[in-house]
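Q: My labmate handed me this sequence with no annotations at all. I'd like to see what the chain might look like in three dimensions before we decide whether it's worth expressing. Could you predict it?
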Amino acid sequence: MGGSTHFPARSWTGWRPYPQARRVSLFWRIFLLNAAVLSLATALLLFTPATVSTPARSGEIAGVFTALAAMLVTNAALLRLGLAPLSRLTRTMATVDLLRPGRRLAVSGNSGIATLIRTFNTMLERLEAERATTAGRALSAQEAERRRIAQELHDEVGQSLTAVLLELKRVGDQAPPELRADLVEVQETTRNSLDEIRRIARRLRPGVLHELGLTSALRALATEYSTRGLNVRARIGPDLPDLDEEAELVLYRVAQEGLTNVARHARAEQVDLTLRRTDGGVELLVRDDGRGLRGAPEGAGIRGMRERALLAGAEVAVGASPGGGTEVRLRLPARTLVPPARMGVSTDAKPPPEPRG
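A: Here is what I predict for the chain of 357 residues:
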């Protein structure tokens, strides 16, 4: 106020000035291509001895149709060359997947087509950013809902079943001998239901991850899935770097989903769960000896793993393992590591306690 105000220059990402002489619209490009072909045909008629009689003779008719075919072929070749960038854009639009970000089309062609390609690339960047933001909010809400349900299962249903179990024990001690066998069977059913509820609550809210860390959580996950003929071997590297909470949760959930898919669909006997440090960050590998993918399309579980990986800037690859089964590979970049300056800094925030029964 009271003087001239300086406004900073606005930065337009991805914008490049083009000479005005090159700004030819797609309409005029097609028009000029056709005009060039027609002009060539007119010049041939004017400056060559070619004539057409009335009525036309057979040789003249053959010459006219030959010239027409040549004009059509020339016109098609020129149009194909001029519209080639548009064809590449169409193929990219048909195959683009927002769960595999980073794919862009090289800007080529002049004016209208180049502007269209540049606009499409900008739209992809915006859609990928918006999808990452939306997916992050949805997954955060999902984790919060999981914690709420796990807490209610533990506090409400778990405590109620515990009370029922104690009451059955008291009644069984006072019941006649001929009823005790039935009461013991009911007690065992109730106890199994209580154990199942506790297991579901632990899977919904991995308290061991918050309390004991990622290494212990993955080992506990391997132990949990090592049942019914499935042997899960956890191989955790000793030199793992410190990760932030979001990265640890992504690694745990991807490992959990990978083991769930193996248990449900793979018909495998052996699974290797590996977490190791790499030059670029951290790598998680879930590899089984089952029947493999067999051309099956990606289901909701794999797409869910990709969405979680995007939140941490990671990449998920699902393919065949060397042993003939399936492998899920998650590469977490180094930027998700906790900086050295933050290591060992205490915080007032406390993780929620694991449900206990």
